Amino acid sequence: MSTDDLTQDLTRRTENAPQELLTRSFFFLCAVLSIVTTLSIIVLLTTEAAKFFSVTAPLMGVEGPTASVVDFLTGTEWVINNEQFGVLPLVSATLAITIGSAVVSLPLGVATAIYLSEYATPRARSLLKPALEVLAGVPTVVYGFFAVVYITPALKTIIPNLGTFNMLSASIVVGIMIIPMVASISEDAMSAVPDSLRQAGYGMGATKFDVSVGIVVPASLSGIFSSFILALSRAIGETMAVTVAAGSQANLLNPLNPASYLEGALPMTAAMVNLLTGDITGGGIAYRSLFAIGLTLFVITLVMNIISDLVAQRYREEY
Amino acid sequence: MTDNQKQEYAADESTDDPTTDDMAIRTDVSESVSASGPTTSGAPVVRAENVDVWYNDDQALQDISLEIPENQVTAMIGPSGCGKSTFLRCINRMNDMIDAARVEGDLHLRGKNVYDDDVDPVALRRRVGMVFQSPNPFPKSIYDNVAYGLKIQNKDGDYDEIVENSLKRAALWDEVKDQLDTSGLDLSGGQQQRLCIARAIAPDPEVILMDEPASALDPVATSKIEDLISELAEEYTVVIVTHNMQQAARISNKTAVFLTGGELVEFDDTEKIFENPDSQRVEDYITGKFG
């Protein structure tokens, strides 16, 4: 090959060849699509929510009834017909669902993950993992009916004064729903713990329990915490199951008091569904309150996700 | 820790009571003496008799018989795949964790066959410490790494003192005494391996197994580990696997040469192995003609 041929061959530009340009643009557009969608949702939420609050409504050129930010954030009554828009009862119900489902899902999810990662034989794993995936794939409205039709009657045999719609069965069912998420993310983290650490433990005369709980779990804490926070974000945003199971009474309750789980309440997501499916008039204040709740919910889950990232970084171990 | 293990440990504490069948490992002098080999200087701590190991249908070790003397360094050398690490892992039954592995024959620790049905591998491994090929400190503080064995065994005693002494014996104390709370993973590779040695000796085992402990380290760190191994042999019985023949020659009292196929070809004093081996195959291997 002559030098000229070689030079031509080596200096050929493939980077901007038409097919390269085309594929690159295609992949870029796909990546941008999700960003554009997210941004549009944020813009829609904030502009519509701005029309709801009396501070910002004039800026948006909205006439008619509005609500004050302070009343919204500190009000303890949510009665749409009276135009009482206090978001606290809804937030308290969402918090109750979060705490209740955490009590169910975190221990069970981590225990499942430990079993799958450390104890299960390949055969047991091959049965359990698909079962968990099925659990994750059940439509959430089915979980809601499951709570109303099965869990609540079962609980009533133990707690006779339990309401038909109550936070207890809603929390339990959301807890069951997010077990697969806790279990699978935690299990991934535990499986990523290098085997040399387990060998070191066993070589020291550690029992299986010592190794699982004393070495593997601490070494995978960052992943386990991430799974908690992602699962709880999911519980906060969970809609259909709680709409069906938790009822529609916007009670302000104390999420830390077990007794408050016996009655029904109205979590933020369920309130939004009720607003959408109820006979509210488009453009009215009730309609715009929907976006105020949506924005509140969005901020909460966003904060949770940021915390998740920070926690994961804080506890990450490099091997 | 289960009650059963507590009992075992309590029985361990009551020292030389031969009637305890706690973990069924005990000094049985008469048996050890009667079976002492021709070149054994002390009583053998580990005695293998006709040990065969299979991984599924592949035989990894064939009919291994040898005696490892107390308070000496015994080296296992041989080419890759000759079964030397497999043999090491038979001694503390780490092979139990490989489903495909099957061990036959007798392997005695101070006269007790560790493959008897009544031997708990967990209790066995508390008597036989292990240091691995690449440093594997836990993602815990230096202190917690060294104290780990004490904690899982619920040992009594002043942990601070034991941790300090173990780190001193592992020649690491001066480098880490001001940073015991920092993660063991922040140390250099050589320091990590010395930390692993400190971790292995803290619960005061009888035997320390080392599986190519310096193969992942640079020459300076390697020479520190080698010095350390010679010192450890004053108090412990050390069995070391290495594929570095010079290392075996430098630090060991006795050398076992495994060759391909899982055979123990020769086992004798290190000097004899390196200067005047009986077997032509061993001579070829040592002089680099094959392997």
Automatic annotation (TrEMBL), chain A:
Record organism: Haloplanus ruber
Gene Ontology biological-process entries: phosphate ion transport
Main location: membrane
Protein's job: Part of the binding-protein-dependent transport system for phosphate; probably responsible for the translocation of the substrate across the membrane.
Start and end residues of each ABC transmembrane type-1 domain: 91-308
Domain of life: Archaea
UniProt xrefs under PROSITE patterns: ABC_TM1 (PS50928)
A Pfam family recorded for this sequence: BPD_transp_1
Subcellular location: Cell membrane; Membrane
SUPFAM superfamilies, alphabetized: MetI-like (SSF161098)
Family: Belongs to the binding-protein-dependent transport system permease family. CysTW subfamily.
Membrane topology note: Multi-pass membrane protein
Designated name of the protein: Phosphate transport system permease protein
Matching Gene3D superfamilies: MetI-like
A GO CC term assigned to this protein in UniProt: plasma membrane
Cited InterPro entries: MetI-like (IPR000515), MetI-like_sf (IPR035906), Phosphate_PstC (IPR011864)
Keywords: Cell membrane, Membrane, Phosphate transport, Transmembrane, Transmembrane helix, Transport
Transmembrane segments: 21-45, 87-114, 134-155, 167-190, 211-232, 285-307
UniProt lineage: Archaea, Methanobacteriati, Methanobacteriota, Stenosarchaea group, Halobacteria
UniProtKB/TrEMBL annotation, chain B:
InterPro entries with a match to the protein in the record: AAA+_ATPase, ABC_transporter-like_ATP-bd, ABC_transporter-like_CS, P-loop_NTPase, PstB-like
Sequence ranges of Acidic residues compositional bias: 10-20
Region entry Disordered, spans: 1-44
Gene Ontology terms for molecular function: ATP binding
Gene3D superfamilies: P-loop containing nucleotide triphosphate hydrolases (3.40.50.300)
Sequence ranges of Polar residues compositional bias: 30-42
Pfam hit, one: ABC_tran
Domain ABC transporter: 46-286
Keyword tags: ATP-binding, Cell membrane, Membrane, Nucleotide-binding, Transport
PANTHER family: ABC TRANSPORTER I FAMILY MEMBER 17
NCBIfam families per UniProt: 3a0107s01c2 (TIGR00972)
Protein name: Phosphate ABC transporter ATP-binding protein PstB
Protein species of origin: Haloplanus ruber
